[in-house]
Write a structure and sequence with these properties.
about 270 residues; Arc Repressor Mutant, subunit A; five-stranded antiparallel β-sheet; four-stranded antiparallel β-sheet; 9 strands; elongated
Length: about 270
């Protein structure tokens, strides 16, 4: 969520216990653990204290973003993202799990990745046309949740990073060509490859120069292009073909399609180019 107060206020939260709660200040924010006499001013994201109250003084006009998730869901995502069990994600997402139980207020290792995810998700969620079919909206929400939790886990990870190792990207490509029309998430791709999301991202980038998400988007675009070329314009529509190929946001897709093929999807459907 996004919060802004419009005045100088002190905000006090309860201990978060087993829940991971991150705040991304959009302006300088002073924060301290409730029992501490001193704190620090954060310009990037931080995690609220599990063991005590967190007292914050946010920028009155810029406000802040707040991200959290069900503890069990975050724990599951941490295992997918980082690989291996992570039983204490609330206090120590990565590295030597359990060694820092009971953390107070602490900065995020990679706050920009979480802020970027929040902004991208907000942009997508608030610009879906009202005409978007319900089944497409449900799929989009599932993918956005996965993306947000992945960013939260990566941003809060502490300690040594997961080694890369070998990943058979060709197997993933084969799977994506068969399942591109489904609501594919990064977690799905990591499960197929049998590795963590971090390892998957690095391996796909090394092999293709792209992110897994960009790779999926490229496959969908090629399939839509192929279907549009073969479709009867009197019986099919661009929206239906795109939605049936896993595309949710038609406006953005149309822009990317034109950049790639030099024409609009409608022109391809109608045989103009």
């Amino acid at each position: 969520m996004f919060v802004r107060y419009g005045a100088d206020v002190d905000v006090e939260t309860s201990p978060t216990h087993d829940r991971l709660v991150a705040t991304i200040p959009l302006g300088p924010m002073h924060a301290r653990e409730g029992r501490s006499a001193t704190g620090r001013t954060f310009h990037a994201g931080f995690v609220l204290s599990q063991r005590d109250a967190t007292v914050m003084r946010p920028d009155p006009w810029n406000g802040a973003l707040v991200v959290t998730g069900d503890p069990a869901r975050v724990k599951e995502q941490a295992s997918i993202v980082l690989g291996g069990p992570h039983d204490d994600v609330g206090s120590h997402v990565g590295g030597d799990v359990g060694s820092d139980v009971g953390h107070g207020v602490q900065g995020l290792q990679d706050a920009p990745i979480l802020e970027r995810a929040c902004r991208q998700i907000w942009s997508v969620a608030t610009t879906l046309p009202d005409s978007t079919p319900d089944y497409v909206v449900d799929g989009v929400l599932s993918v956005l949740e996965d993306q947000l939790l992945t960013a939260l886990v990566l941003a809060a990870q502490r300690g040594p990073k997961t080694p890369i190792g070998d990943v058979r990207v060709t197997c993933l490509l084969d799977w994506l060509h068969e399942n591109y029309a489904s609501n594919v998430t990064l977690s799905d791709m990591a499960r197929v490859a049998g590795v963590s999301i971090r390892r998957l991202q690095q391996a796909v980038h090394d092999a293709t120069g792209q992110t897994p998400t960009a790779l999926l988007r490229q496959i969908r675009m090629r399939e839509v292009h192929r279907k549009l070329q073969r479709a009867d314009p009197h019986q099919e529509t661009v929206a239906r073909i795109a939605h049936d190929s896993g595309v949710a946001h038609l406006g953005r897709f149309a822009q990317q399609y034109r950049q790639h093929y030099g024409c609009t999807p409608s022109e391809t459907l109608n045989g103009v180019t």
